[in-house]
Amino acid sequence: EGLIPIYVFDGQPPEQKREELERRAKIKEEAEKKLAKIKEGGGSVEEARKYSQIALKLTNDMVDESKKLLDAMGIPWIQAPSEGEAEAAYINIKGLSWAAGSQDYDSLLFGAKRLIRNLTITGRRKLPGKDVYVEIKPELIELDILLKKLAITREQLIDIGILIGTDYNPGGVKGIGVKTAYRIIKKYGSLEKAIERGEIQKTLISFDINAIRKLFLNPAVKDPDVSLELREPDENRTVEILVQLHDFNEDRVKNGIQRLIKAGREAKAAGRQTGLDQWF
After folding, report:
1. Residue 140 lies in a domain
2. From residue 157, how far is each of 13, 53, 111, 163, 191 by CA, in Å?
């Protein structure tokens, strides 16, 4: 029947994520250097576009303004105390949402009952590092069905994730891919037992298994302190943000607001959620 989005913003990341964040920052830094060289006359337009996209950074001002826009549009949002993925999974576990929407499989490790991937308006996704778009379709993964099909527990799924690599231990255990990780955990039941039996060399484990497991099983989350219901949009405020501050086309914005108001009213009248395409 469609959906009503609830946006979740990241909070303070766990200390264990520092290595991954430093890796991402380094990639952006290298992209900025390459972009500077291109601007000096050392590259093509395609290369400039590529490195510009990689070098983009989400600032606190951007986040704050996004929240103001969502408020103006009447769309609910939550500020997570830590990982946004964990908070999205938590409100799903609590029954406050139908599913978590993300490209990140970590949502399942955090315990989301359902995960929707490839959730887009256009039905297309840009390939990393290429000016090429491919068609994609929404993908629904239900945690209980997945665990039953694999004949494992959520704790074991987390151990598989740790072997492959998560944001808290990038790269995982050297030489172990998805199939091998699944075979090992199915055979031994846990990462610790696999190490005890000599299947995995202890010297290859350079991270705290229990600390990472705890981040997925008991993450920093909170009960929402705001209504997650759709509200009537504030047309004047929305126009102020999009048109006056960011030079969007006024007619297009006002038409979009009217579609949003209509879709919201129809959804409430019908007692169901509304299609994503009606928001834009």
Report:
1. no
2. 22, 33, 10, 10, 11
The beta strand positions in the chain, using DSSP E, are: 7-9, 77-79, 100-101, 114-117, 124-126, 133-135, 139-142
Cα distance between residue 86 and residue 82, in whole Å: 8
Distance of CA 143 to the CA centre of its chain: 17
Q: What is the pLDDT of residue 270?
A: 65
User: What kind and span of H or E run contains 37?
Assistant: helix 18-37
SS3 5: coil
Does residue 50 lie in a domain region?
Answer: no
Predicted TM-score of the model (pTM): 0.86
How many domains does the chain fold into?
1
Tokens read off for 87: 């908070």
Length of the chain: 280
223: Cα separation from own chain's centroid = 19
On the question of pLDDT at 275 being above 80, the answer is: no
CATH number of the domain within which 170 lies: 1.10.150.20
- Tell me the residue range of the domain where 185 lies: 145-217
Nearest to 172 by CA among 180, 182, 162, 158: 162
Per the prediction, the chain carries an average pLDDT of: 90
